[in-house]
């Protein structure tokens, strides 16, 4: 069968059009929206987009509306399972709360990083902060 | 008929005006929702004016309201609808033929025209003409909302005499089908099974439909009453069937549906189709999408492809034809097919889109690789119509006979779809106003095909269809009850374009290299499944298998390995060489000349060596290759940093010089290119020098190997064949690339040749050069200094030996020999282990050369021989040295005896004498402690002694003794 399918062995984003997708960007942001259009560069047009911020087992959604994403910024994307979405083991909190939580988390991380680099410095080691991507720690 | 239909009140008030008023309100609400404010002014006002001008304003208006309500509600037909419907059927033909003028009235553009003029006018219009589409959008579109086309639209036989030309063409094209129509009439139930979309006996044009729309709209009420009894009976029959199939309870039952505007025979279930089903095929319209309903007109109005306007909703829980629909997810998506034309949307009642098939199908036609898509690009309504339990046959949009036929077919075989769509495409091509010029061709095509699609093609399409349309449902991952008004914003054309890009990328003749993982995966899977049969793809892959025929990166690796070790250049057969070979030879620039002349005083250009690290094709990063035994990268990295040295390769021009200065010689003059000689002092590292010499030797070896290739016809034949193959490959690739390019891209490429597809690069860029060119390049590298340096390397000596036959005719060979003798002293010291083996191999060449040398050359060579008081003088302590010396003396004697040499001047004699004196004194002063085992021919002794007679004043006995001693040793 596959012999006759010219697109066998490949994946194409057209299958995802009009589906609800979660898109992870290079800067670490997570967007959830309905894919409306794609092109050959995997540039995406998301509609009814929300930016979802996860902190621990909490999350908050920031409405973003229509979102056009340059394809190179997409780390990964996947379809949202509508059934599982209904029974999310996470707790939704308000935008303000999640932003606050995110800020606190970042501060904690920075503090930890500061301590680590200080300790390393005392041992004669330099840590290049540039090399450590805070978002994916 | 009953007054109720499935429990609905289907009675119509006697006063039609009252009912019409209600319908009009509803209609207006719908209209507002649908169109917002009218696009082109207040169409309603204009319309009313026009209708008034037409004379039947009130009634038409009221009827329109009815019809529209019926269409939007999608309600089943009520009892009163039957007579009215039949009335329309019966009246339409006669009215269209007899009183055409009033029906033109609603069309603002042609209200004053005669019917014929209207037709001509419309036929000359383009579908995507702005005026036309907008006009249809605002006026005719809404007219059609209210007026249902019935089968009479297509059944209206009495076309005016002045029909458009293309209708004639259509008729002639569909003659066979016309005959079939009669058969179907004779036996409708039987004909049902034969019903195929292409069996339309008569094809109506857009103009026909429009005209019939007008007719319908303007038909006086009293005319509607004139219905034939057989039609009535038939419609009753149809209704009975509908009642039979419709579910008893429907959520959208709100109002009785008084009007039955649907052509009889378009039953939702084919099994229960009435005998007169084929009534609808009196004149099947080939272009359902061209019906001037608001949806299709909206699409025509600037929207490309099958966009679905907001308000589009996929019907939930479709029974019946849903499974086939689910087989065509792309179709659902692309073709905007998921919505039945009159699907009740509750609060979201908007004009529902009809796929713009002319565009879509023409796009399909433009993409031959998308037969499957084309096959699936069936009118969506055709799928949906029978599926919806609520859908009343009396659609707001006239159920197209083709659609109805397709409904039947949809439950049968997929191949029918393909046939249908191919037919549809053909029909559209024939009848589309824009494609008039193609009509003849298309008709011929159709006739030549005999009206049938090859079954294998159908099967293939079917297969592709199943693969391409894998989407499980039509509405993304939305819950089925969720309404996604922005779905299908991507048009079919967009999607096909995208898939086309992907397909073009997959188009490769070397899948094993270009699509390795999938290909191998498939092979393995095939093996697992025990498929002994080898597919064509498999064979292709085997052809390109790296083990059987190295190509691509496998070939590259081999080339790299071969060049690295320098050992693959053995004897004869076809050798692969590094890619940089040719680029380097082509890169000799002006700075090269400077460097070459600076180092060797030789103005010949020597192509530089540019190391290009191994890269795997299409890999993002550089994958460096290096091994313990061949740490090439490390060597090169070092050299790239400090380029210039006596052994520097001149081909590396100013840039490398600059890097040299920054890396090593930062204090030197940065403004001028560094000459190797200048760098000698500042780069004392013998290691670095030796590396440069190694690189030089390798460069010269390349020329040498090419020269040797030229000598071997077998090798040349192989190379030519390989070049041809590669050229064919590149040509094919280029062709493919050009085919996928727009003219703009081609222009851009022409202006920027750098942006060539890397695949187009010649992987086997063996450039066949002439011997002269190669010798020229060889000579550039064989300067005195370099020969001296090369003599210190084992493979340098071998190189010189192999080079000698090619340069024997050139004066450069004496430079080389001078270098050889000059280096003899150090060579002796260095290569104690294998003095004679390689060095002695040079002797036969020297002997050959010296036998033709002039006396001046002899003198020059003699001057190059280093003579000192060392106990280990090279010329005496090596077999090559002593034999060369003997050969030299013998040549001098020869010249002395013959006395024909013009260079036998006194100066040269004097020099020669000095040389002999030096040899003699050297021998007498120092006792050579190295035994010489030179094979001196016994007949050479006498000439030597004769020669020495010329210089009796010199104490040449020692030399003679040396030579004879050597001879004795041999003896």
UniProtKB/TrEMBL annotation, chain A:
It is found in: Cytoplasm; Cytoplasm, P-body. The keyword Hydrolase applies. Keywords: ATP-binding, Cytoplasm, Helicase, Hydrolase, mRNA processing, mRNA splicing, Nucleotide-binding, Phosphoprotein, Ribonucleoprotein, RNA-binding. Its main location: cytoplasm. It comes from the Eukaryota. InterPro entries: Lsm1, LSM_dom_sf, PTHR15588, Sm, Sm_dom_euk/arc. CDD domains: LSm1. Residues 8-83 form the Sm domain. GO terms for biological process: deadenylation-dependent decapping of nuclear-transcribed mRNA; mRNA processing; RNA splicing. It holds the Pfam family LSM. One of its GO terms (cellular component) is Lsm1-7-Pat1 complex. GO terms for molecular function: helicase activity; mRNA binding. Interacts with SLBP; interaction with SLBP occurs when histone mRNA is being rapidly degraded during the S phase. LSm subunits form a heteromer with a donut shape. Probably involved with other LSm subunits in the general process of degradation of mRNAs. Plays a role in the degradation of histone mRNAs, the only eukaryotic mRNAs that are not polyadenylated. Probably also part of an LSm subunits-containing complex involved in the general process of mRNA degradation. Belongs to the snRNP Sm proteins family. This is U6 snRNA-associated Sm-like protein LSm1. The gene is LSM1.
TrEMBL record, chain B:
One of its GO terms (biological process) is P-body assembly. Residues 251-264, 581-602 have a biased composition (Low complexity). Residues 443-456 have a biased composition (Polar residues). InterPro entries: Pat1-like. Keywords: Cytoplasm. Residues 1-23, 244-270, 443-481, 529-548, 563-602 are annotated as: Disordered. It comes from the Eukaryota. One of its GO terms (cellular component) is P-body. It is found in: Cytoplasm, P-body. GO terms for molecular function: RNA binding. This is Protein PAT1 homolog 1. It comes from Drosophila guanche (Fruit fly).
